[in-house]
Amino acid sequence: MTAFARRARASAGRMHPELSLVSYTLLGHLEDSGGCRATDLAAHYALDKSTVSRQVTALERAGLIERRQAPEDHRVQVLRLTEKGTRILARVTERRRRAIRERLADWPEEDLDRFAQYLVRYNDGLPPRPGGH
């Protein structure tokens, strides 16, 4: 698992030098959710608020996300992807998918099926995240 995580972090850095694996993950969540508060990101990923704050600041500086007032409560800041963030996330996602397809290209179909089943089983066994996600 450590080797897998190391490779994922290194791969993320090669895909886009300014986009760490954590940044990529946060951008993906913002895209999937349509935007959310930084505290929601921290709760979803069980990360310290200061960790998320540093990541959010870096993503803002890079022009990948922006803060907007929530329509229902103007005191609340919602994080959303910018056009640049959406483009970079799409490009990095496609590169990651291509790299995975290439790495698994010579695997027999039954191995791929088994691997997919194991990943589903592993992910289903994770404890629930704070907030029920």
Q: What gross morphology would you assign? A: globular
The percentage of residues in β strands lies in 5-15%
Helix content range: 55-70%
Residue stretches low in confidence (pLDDT < 50, at least 5 long) are none
Largest sheet: 2 strands, antiparallel
N-C termini distance: 23 Å
Mean pLDDT across all residues, rounded?
86
Structural class, by secondary structure, is: mainly alpha
How many DSSP E strands? Answer: 2
Cα gyration radius (Å): 17 Å
N to C succession of SSEs: HHHHEEHH
Q: What count of helical segments does DSSP give?
A: 6
Lateral strand order in the biggest sheet = 1-2
Descriptive notes:
With 133 residues, the protein is mainly alpha-helical. 65% of the residues lie in helices and 11% in strands. The protein has helices spanning 2-15, 21-33, 38-45, 49-61, 83-104, 109-124; strands spanning 65-70, 73-81. The mean pLDDT is 86.
